[in-house]
Amino acid sequence: MDTATNTFKPPELHTDFEVRSTNQMCVNSSTLDKPIVSNLKFMFAGILFGVILVKSEVISWFRIQEMFRLQSFHMYGVIGSAVVIGIISVFIIKKFKIKTIDGEPIQFDKKKFSKGQIYGGLLFGIGWAMTGACPGPLFALIGNGATVIIVTLFSAIMGTWVYGFFRDKLPH
Amino acid sequence: MNFIEWIKQPWPWYVAGPLIGLMVPVLLILGNRMFGVSASLRHICAACVPMNISFFKYDWKKEMWNLFFVGGILLGGLITLLFLQNPDPVVIDTKLSTELAGYGVTNTEGLVPKELFNWNNVLSLKGFVLMIVGGFFVGFGTRYAGGCTSGHAIMGLSNLQLPSLIATCCFMLGGFFFANIVLPLILKLHF
């Protein structure tokens, strides 16, 4: 590739930097413009998820160490059975073209491979083993009274910010 | 044993796992949302300190549901603490407890080891690495990978996405490496 195309990026290259195309987790496929309070239902879903995370002890540093040392089946059972139920649910939604409660068709986006899944994945794995928590558990732990995890959450936000800052220079 | 006492016990994997799996269709049916948590950290950056960085210049208000979701997770943790908390220490594998005891970590009363994760420890080398460097890796790594355990390992695998399988394998590899090879060295530190 010659340097001229590198210094001036045509617009289509920039699509890679947009929220919706790069990041599955950011996809908000709903086109409906709804008031902010309509988000409360997601808060209730979050509450349910938070309770499950605490009660199953998957947010425990000890359980994460057991998982990475192959000393317990618990975490593998939780993630494995969650994936099985998830696969069945997605299959049913696609097969019967189930719609959202607002009557919109449910859409799935394909994830594109990038080297980030390898480099970032390895880095996150290390962080998971250090803190004993992935992002969901960080929130659940703080709510559950482990207030010092606020520091870890703040640091995770910093990490995300630094990634955003250096994103163009990192291999993807 | 009454219902509350029964539900206060730690939930086995075959109860918790399927319930977590059900978060996938619940969020899809509630409004076409893909199950995921780590993007919330990005939305917080976009809302608070976008600083003209292209990665944070988007309409984060449209992704507000995710902030409500993580707010809910925090509340769920609090509700459990108030009403459903298991009064007994976390039961851990004897091999792990023996090893940890060798490093002076014997308190399994909470979900996090109190000897390591506490406010007095934040600026000790051990605490700094586990809490602050660890948190940084979580935030940096999940965004670099485009998702975390929920977004890749659960949502992505549920939708049979190969990139998510690659990411999940890398999560595990990174964790195996750190937990078995590096962590013992850090736990040996006395400061």
Distance between the termini of chain B: 45 Å
Structural class category of chain B: mainly alpha
The biggest sheet of chain B, with number of strands, parallel, antiparallel or mixed sense and barrel status, is: none
Mean of all residue-level pLDDT scores of chain A: 86
The helix/strand class of chain A is mainly alpha
- How much of the sequence of chain B is in beta strands? under 5%
Q: What is the number of E strands of chain A?
A: 0
The multimeric state of the shown protein is heterodimer
> pLDDT under 50 segments of chain A (min length 5)?
1-27
Shape of chain A: globular
- Helical element count of chain A? 9
Order of helices and strands of chain A: HHHHHHHHH
How many helical stretches of chain B?
Answer: 8
Task: Return Rg of chain B in Å.
Answer: 19 Å
State the separation between the terminal residues of chain A, measured CA to CA: 17 Å
Beta-strand content estimate of chain A: under 5%
Mean pLDDT of chain B: 94
Write a structural description.
The complex is a heterodimer of chains A (172) and B (191). Chain A contains 9 helices and no strands. Residues 1-27 of chain A have low confidence and may be disordered. Chain A is mostly helical. In chain A, helix 4 (40-55) crosses helix 8 (135-143), helix 5 crosses helix 7 and helix 8 (135-143) runs antiparallel to helix 9 (149-166). Chain A starts with a helix and ends in a 6-residue tail after the last helix. Chain B has 191 residues and is mainly α. Chain B has helices at residues 3-8, 13-31, 39-48, 64-84, 94-102, 125-145, 149-158, 162-187. Chains A and B meet through helix 4, helix 5, helix 6, helix 7 and helix 8 of A and helix 2, helix 3, helix 4, helix 6 and helix 7 of B.
